[in-house]
Amino acid sequence: MNMKFSILNLLLVITAAAALLALRFSHLERVELTQRHERVISAMKGELRALENEVAAMRQEIGMLTITDPAQIHAVKVPSSAALQWSYRVYLPKGSDYYFACQINSLPDDRDSLHRSNPPSINTIARTHRNGIGMGQPPGEYIVTLSIEQKNSEWTYRLNVRESGKAEDGSTGSGRINDANNKWPSTSDWVAVGGVTDQVRLSKDRSFLALLDFRAMSETDTSSAGATQGAMLWVGTSPRR
Question: Which pLDDT score, from 0 to 100, does residue 170 have?
């Protein structure tokens, strides 16, 4: 009787130990499986971040915008093959009216004091000052292009604003560079270029963003800060009327 009881106890102990070992191995397998899954997920997240960075770089390279704050102006340079042509993709948020403007020569010494008086109203093309033009635009995403070219012996400038994704020409203003005291673009020693290249956002305490600040140095200029020849292009917020 005692022998039977001992054998029964032994079988129970062995069964319990086997069950415990099975549970232990099952737990270890789950831990290993979880760790393996975590390693796979971590690797996938790393690959996803790398792909996102690559996509962002490619978007920027071809001039695509990534809107990080829908309430702020965003801009990025769009590649152009022409020597004197500059293009930008610009996002204008809802809630305000805006204008694009350019100035050829007679550029301000203080680059923050752009000509902003009497900006053109919505859907209006207006000459803002000598060798300058502006266009009022509602909120949206646009491609804005400033082109300068020589026709026969005359230099002309052309500002074009069209909605992004549309084939239409959009709004166009043009003029002849007719200031006899300005030598550029017919001659210049070298140039200093500023403005937007990589994607930027206009800070909320600013009312305009300089897309292009192209300074043509003359023989008398000691730095680009004093150069008044060249071209500027900017986008600003217009007061609603």
Answer: 82
| Residue in the block written with tokens 């790393």 | 46
pTM passes above 0.85: no
Please check whether residues 209 and 91 belong to one and the same domain: yes
Residue 194, sorted as left (phi over 0), alpha (psi -120 to 50) or beta, turns out to be beta
The distance in angstroms from the start CA to the end CA of the chain is: 107
156 and 177 housed in the same domain: yes
Read off the pLDDT of residues 165-192 as tens digits, 9 standing for 90 and up: 776 678 899 988 876 666 788 777 678 8
Among 61, 87, 111, identify where a domain stops: 61
What total number of domains does the chain contain? 2
Q: Does residue 58 surpass a pLDDT of 60?
A: no
Q: Are residues 121 and 14 both part of a single domain? A: no
pLDDT bucket at 88, cuts 50 / 70 / 90: very high
The answer to the question of residue 165 being in a domain is yes
133, 70, 134: which is closest to 98 by C-alpha? 134
Task: Give me the domain span that covers residue 21.
Answer: 1-61
CA distance 174 to 132: 9
